[in-house]
Amino acid sequence: MFKYFYKYLLVVYLYLASFFQDYQTQDTTPPSPFRRPLVWGDINFLHTTDTHGWYGGHQHQESYSGNWAQFISFAEHMKERARANNQDLLLIDSGDRHDGNGLSDLTSPNGALLLPIFVKQKYDILTIGNHEMYLWENFFQERYFVAEHFADHYISTNVEFEVDGEFEPIGQRYKYFETEVNHHRILAFGFLFNFTRNCNGSRVIPMRDVSELQWFLDVLESHLDKVDLIVINGHTPITPTWDEFYLVHQVIRKYYPNTKIQYFGGHSHIRDFRVFDGLLTGIQSGRFCETVGWLSINMNNTLKTPITDIFHRSYIDFNPLSFMFHSGIDSIDEFMTPNGNEVKALIHDVKKELNLGTLIGYVPENFYVDRVPQSHPQNLFKLLSDKVLPLLDYNSTVLERLIIINTGSVRYDLFKGAYTLDTHYIVSPFRNKWVKLTVPKHVAIRISHFLNSGRYINFKLLPLHHQYETLRQMRVEALHQVNGGFNEEVKEQLEVEKLTHGYVTNDDFGNSGDDTPHIPVGYHYVPNVVESRQFFNEFRGDELCDVIFYDFISSNIYWALNAMGYPVNQKVEFYSDVYLGLLLDEFARQEQSKRKH
Ligand SMILES: *[C@@H]1O[C@H](CO)[C@@H](O)[C@H](O)[C@H]1NC(C)=O
Ligand SMILES: *[C@@H]1O[C@H](CO)[C@@H](O)[C@H](O)[C@H]1NC(C)=O
Ligand SMILES: *[C@@H]1O[C@H](CO)[C@@H](O)[C@H](O)[C@H]1NC(C)=O
Ligand SMILES: *[C@@H]1O[C@H](CO)[C@@H](O)[C@H](O)[C@H]1NC(C)=O
Ligand SMILES: [Zn+2]
Ligand SMILES: [Zn+2]
Q1: Which of 167, 209, 294, 376 could form a disulfide with 314 if both were Cys (CB 3.0 to 4.6 A apart)?
Q2: For residue 243, which atom of ligand 2 is closest to its CA?
Q3: DSSP reduced 3-state for 53
C-alpha cells in the first residue's frame, strides 16, 4: 500500500518538476555513480540492435556518450572475464545499422564509411534489418561486405538475394555450433519481420511461411536431442501484438518442449523484455547506441525453477563509465584495448573525411521530442509550429496557409549549441516534397484534430518508438509486476540528487533492469501530426486557404477530409521541395546571426 502511495507522490513530484526544471543542464551532469551489477550465467550475451550509425557516440548526452571503440574494448574485457570464470559470452546484433546520422548518411550509398567501423566488433551472431533493404545499393553492400565479412556468423533464415534470377539466402539460414568454453550446443536462426518495402533483387519470406517450410522443419527434426539452447535473433519487435515470433515459437515448442529458447528482438527502438513461457524469454535492446542489452542464462535450471532464476537481463547505458564498471576497470587508459584504440582512430578519420562537424548554425536551447509536454517552450514540435515551418517560402500574393507535418518526420531531439551537418542528418534528413490542397479555413483547421483523435489509429505517422512504448507500458501494468517507485538504495541516491535523467524500464521482470537507475525522462504524449497556421487576416471560416503537407501523407489527409464530411476531388499540387531538414538549417542560421549582432 505504502509502496504505491510513494509511487504516486513521485509521479506528481516529477510532473510538477518538469515545468520548473532547467532542462538545459540535465544531460551535462556526470552520470550517476550508482549502478546495478550484472548477473552472470553459464551463457551470457551482449546485445545491440537498431544502432543506426551512432558509432561516434552521443555528443550531448553523457549517458549515451560511449563510442564504438569503447564498446569494442568493453566486449573484449567481458569475454576475458567470462573465460576466467569458465563461462561463455556471445555478441549479437539484430540489424538496422545505418540511416540515423551524418556518419551513416553522408556517403553514397549511405553506410559506405560506417560499416567498416561496425564490422570491427567481433559479433558471434548477427542478422539483417529492414534499413539494409530499402535500396539495392544498401542490400548489395550488406551481402558483399557485411555478410561476407562475418561469414558463418551472419544468419538470416528468411531473407534472400537474387543472383541471375534465382534467390539464395543472404547469409547462413541457420547455425549449429558449440560455445567456446563450456561446449553448450546452440541452434541459431535469424528473422526479419514481414517487411514488404524491400528493393528489387531481394525477398523476405514471412515467418509464418518459413515455419511451414520443409527445410526448416527438417532442421528442427534433425537436431532433436542435440541442442542445449535455441537462439532466435530477429529484427522483429517482441511486443505481443506483433505475433510473428509467437508463430515460430509454437512450431519450435512442438519439437523442443523442454529446451531453453532466447529471442533477441529489434526494430521498434525500445528497451523491453518479455516472458513467452517457462523456458523462453525475449529481450530488445533499444536504439541508437543508447543501450547494450545483457542477457544471461543459467543452463542447469529446468522448468521446475522459477524463470527469474534461469534468465537475467539488464540494459546497460552506452557510456564508458558503465562499460568500465561492468568490466571492473577504473582507468580509461587501462580500459581501452589496442583494437579499441585502432577503431577510435578510424572513427576520427571518417568524421574528418565527411566534415561531420561543418557548422551550419546555432541552436539556442535543447528541444525535445517527448521529454516535455507539447505546450512547453522546449518541445521540438512546438518549435517547428512556431518558428520552423513558417520559414517555408511564402508568396504573400497567394492564399494564406496551414502546414501539417507528421511527428514521425523527426527522428531525434535537437540539442543546444552548434548545429552541424551531423545535426541535420540526426534530426530530420528526409527529402520529402510538400504538396497542397485548397479548402475553406473552417475545414482546414479541423484536419489535424481529426488525425490526432482516437478515431484515427494510424501509428505510422508517429516516431517509431512511440508506436510501441505505450503498448509495453500497458502490458506490464496489466501484469501487476510493476513494483511501485524505487527500492531503498535508489531512493537514497535520489535524496542526495545523484540520479540523472534517463530510461526507467518496466518489463516482465519488473523495473530493476536498467543498469543505471534514473529519474525517468518525461515520456509525454506525441500526436500523429502537428500544424502551423499562417493566417494573417481576420479569420473567416468560409475563406479559402492552402493546406500544405508532405506528399506521403496525402492518403491520410484525404481520409480525414472524407471522415469530416468534406470529401475533395482535387488532386494535390506540388508546393515546394524545401524539406523540413532544410528549414531547420535556415532556423539555425538565423539564430547564429542573431548571436553575432
Ligand atoms: C522492380 O522490378 C519490377 C519488375 O521487374 C519493375 O516493374 C519495377 O519498376 C522495379 N522497381 C524498381 C524500383 O526498380
Ligand atoms: C505482418 O505481421 C503482422 C503481425 O503478425 C501483421 O499484423 C501484419 O498484418 C503483417 N503484414 C503483412 C504485410 O503481412
Ligand atoms: C551449472 O553447473 C555447472 C557444473 O556443476 C557449474 O559450474 C555452474 O556454475 C552452474 N551454473 C550456475 C549458473 O550456477
Ligand atoms: C507569387 O504568386 C503570383 C501569383 O501566382 C505569381 O505571379 C508570382 O510570380 C509569385 N511570386 C513569387 C516570388 O514566386
Ligand atoms: Zn531501426
Ligand atoms: Zn527496423
Answers
A1: 294
A2: 5
A3: coil
